[in-house]
Amino acid sequence: MYSIDDLRRRARALVAQETAAFRSKHPASKSLFERAAVHYPGGVPQHWMLDWATPFPLSITRAEGATVTDADGLTYVDFCLGDGGALFGHSPAPVAQAIAEQASLGLTAMLPGADTAAVGELLAERFGLPFWQMTATASDANRAVIRWARAITRRPKLLIFDGCYHGQVDETFANMTADGCSPKPSLIGPTPGATADTLVIDFNDCTALEAALAGGDVALILTEPALTNTGMVLPQPGFLEAVQALARRSGTLVCLDETHTIATGPGGYAAGSDLEPDFLVVGKPIAGGLPAAVYGFTAAIEAAMRRIQAARPSGYSGIGTTLSGNLLAMAAMRACLCEVMTATSYRQMIGLAERLADRLTEAVSSRSLPWSVVRLGARVELVFSPQPPRTGAEARAALDEDLERALHLSLLNRGVILTPFHNMMLVSPATRGEDVERLALLMAEAFDIFTGTDEALA
């Protein structure tokens, strides 16, 4: 067994070496970053673009299929894929064509277009829910679902799981504490009292869930089918079925946020596991990377929505934004659903992801490293713990900044990009077998440096 101190010491040495190499390879990206810093705080249009392991971010000039090219002319195999926004590859040809054609006909009009009926039919057929609404982001969709759930049930509380992620929804930025929950300390300018009606419990804990629902005041359980943003935490057998059963018994509604777990199959995790949520949210990749999201719901929910609409005074409902369901997004969504998110694409993605997981598991076990590999559809994650985590707390405990930074930098300098958050890898239909083999080989070489098998940093 390797000493964690030795692993981290070699990782820090590798970071120093790879940081110097990165600086020397990317003068154009550095120059653009410095120029941008004059008008953008931190030099980027969103501060989280600095979360990469690099001293400054790459400036991307082209993204196509499973590759991106930077301002210095260097090309990378991309296993980040925009953190899922480009899950089906960068700029899929059918989506790009649909966008170009629709752009010449109009972008937005605050009215439905010719694609509206077809997209509704496609969503209902694919996901098994008869009714749908459009938003610009999954954050907006989740906010809308929470509001509808509270209106329908006339209950105040939202239940989430520790380690969840549902976009920019204030009610979900909560940490589990001994006596309830508190706003995440990292949150900038949290809305006062936003989490006062939020309950946070451990994922995979049916006993805690039953206790939390016993008060009869929970409007909605909002959850990912598997936690994905704190490190991947898979549901234990029967857990999601228990969530559904306990919710129905207590009169609580359930929303599955499939923005990340859409990587499991054409109908997402819910369809593949015969789950029947009241609401379902899909964001990021649903329109091929163009900003758009959807939320679907049952006929019973739609009937309740009609009753609420009929009873409320006229005026702004607080749900929906001007660009939601715009003409351009609907055209892109139709093309993505029809021609990109196909069964053939999923077979390619999931088959290669399975191969990647096998290669990484072999590299870890052959070196007797105390790590594990988790896969969910086309998502693969290297976890710095011997067993896959069962809760958000276990996933956080497995994070190791030194090892992650060294691994990500060494791969980036060799032409492979991972998602900057933990060690998540996405496989697209455009990813090739040789891309997977290359990533696995480079990972194994980094492992050898960490363990001292490669004496370059010993």
Notable traits:
alpha/beta, globular, 15% strand, Aspartate Aminotransferase, domain 1, seven-stranded mixed sheet, 458 residues, four-stranded mixed sheet, Aspartate Aminotransferase, domain 2, 2 domains, single chain
Summarize this, please?
This protein is of the alpha/beta class.
Give a verbal description of the structure:
The longest helix has 24 residues, at 343-366. The protein is built from 14 helices and 16 strands. It is globular, with a radius of gyration of 22 Å. The chain is an alpha/beta fold. The strands form four sheets. It has a seven-stranded mixed beta sheet, sandwiched between helices. A four-stranded mixed beta sheet has the order 1-2-3-15. Helices cover 40% and strands 15% of the residues. The protein has helices at residues 4-25, 27-36, 93-103, 116-127, 138-153, 206-213, 239-250, 268-272, 299-311, 327-340, 343-366, 392-397, 401-412, 433-451; strands spanning 60-64, 67-70, 75-78, 131-135, 157-161, 174-177, 180-183, 198-201, 218-223, 253-257, 279-282, 293-297, 372-376, 379-383, 416-417, 424-426. The chain folds into two domains: 4-88 and 344-457, Alpha-Beta Complex (Aspartate Aminotransferase, domain 1), CATH 3.90.1150.10; 94-340, Type I PLP-dependent aspartate aminotransferase-like (Major domain) (Aspartate Aminotransferase, domain 2). Its cofactor is pyridoxal 5'-phosphate.
List the helices and strands and how they pair.
Layout: H1 4-25, H2 27-36, E1 60-64, E2 67-70, E3 75-78, H3 93-103, H4 116-127, E4 131-135, H5 138-153, E5 157-161, E6 174-177, E7 180-183, E8 198-201, H6 206-213, E9 218-223, H7 239-250, E10 253-257, H8 268-272, E11 279-282, E12 293-297, H9 299-311, H10 327-340, H11 343-366, E13 372-376, E14 379-383, H12 392-397, H13 401-412, E15 416-417, E16 424-426, H14 433-451
Parallel strand pairs: 3-15, 5-8, 5-9, 9-10, 10-11
Antiparallel strand pairs: 1-2, 2-3, 4-12, 6-7, 11-12, 13-14, 14-16
Helix pairs in contact: 1-13, 3-10, 4-10, 6-7, 11-14, 13-14
